[in-house]
Amino acid sequence: MDSLTQKIRETASNILKEGKVEMVIGFAKGTIPMTTKPYMARTPEQTENFIWDKNCTLNLANYITGRKEKIGIIAKGCDSRNIVNHIVENKISRDQLYIIGVPCSGMADKNNPDELRDNCATCTHKNPVIFDVMVAEPVEEQKLDDPFADVKAIEAMDKDAKWSYFEGLLQNCIRCYACRNACPLCYCPTCFVDESGPQWVGKGQNKTDIQTFHFLRAFHCAGRCTDCGACEAACPMDIHVRAFTRKLNKDSLELFGWEAGLDITKRPPLDTFNPDDPNDFIK
Amino acid sequence: MANLFEHIGVEKERLQFSWISSAEAGKFTNVATEVANTIEALGPIDKFVKKTD
User: Fold this and answer.
1) Residues 6+ apart with CB under 8 A from A28
2) Model confidence pLDDT, tens digit, residues A11-40
3) What's the complex ipTM?
4) For labelling alongside A18, which of A82, A111, A174, A257 has CA 20 to 30 A away?
5) Residues A283, B16: C-beta atoms closer than 8 Å
6) Domain boundaries, given as residue ranges, for chain B
7) In B1-53, which ranges are continuous DSSP H helix?
8) Which of B3, B9, B18 lies nearest to residue A282, judging by beta carbons?
9) In chain A, what are the domain boundaries?
């Protein structure tokens, strides 16, 4: 058996036995090949179901929102950054968590299992940024010359080309909201698309309503998105949902020098005021 | 937000921000006129508009 899986099961089982946590969140084998599902182990025996492979594409930070008990959680680089987000946004406290860090060498593309998925290929935080224990030695982080080449390619288009690109991108959306439900940032008790008074956006398959959903959901993630790719992993229609959030990540970095989820002592840029904030857009 | 508008091909000038005190009537009219003129020059928007049949 894979040594990481072995180590994860051992660690999870130990912290449950020692009573440090009431449950451990990790990945178990999915119902179809090459998939995994989130799995909550509450007894040491159940930790035997944990696995770690190239298909752990979801983000487990999604399952700790507002929990009251002590939780052990298995975290790769991006999960750990979303855990930091959750702590910063008061969705859970640091003392409630026992974080089992897993250095990640990238997850497989669901349509092309021999290759890394898109966001893992450009990932610069493969190692957990916050953890109580690591199950292996950290992996080497890559340095990218141009992490936002894809965003720049879109920026270089003229406005009509941009519009038709995004129109094409969203034409297959069936509005199942899997992207939203898989996203650890989308924890609002009532999402703006589900709100009925006022009703911000139509609920049908109207093209503009679909575009509004994606556009606004992305903006709600501004300065918070860790590019974990859970949205795309969950999308049944293979929509490149990250095309929106990538742009916002680029802007956050350029305008505020900010990458989300790296430090539990810092508030996200759209949540704070700083006299040096860029304000050229105000007349 | 304006940057994200521009990114999907909607003119960012359609979204404008200003900070005007209630005592600054002159500034208010100037900004309002300027906004109106910019939008007029851009013409009617043909994207991101919900069409009802």
Assistant:
1) A36, A37, A38, A39, A49, A50, A51
2) 999 999 999 999 999 999 999 989 999 999
3) 0.81
4) A82
5) yes
6) 17-43
7) 2-7, 25-42
8) B18
9) 3-134, 149-271
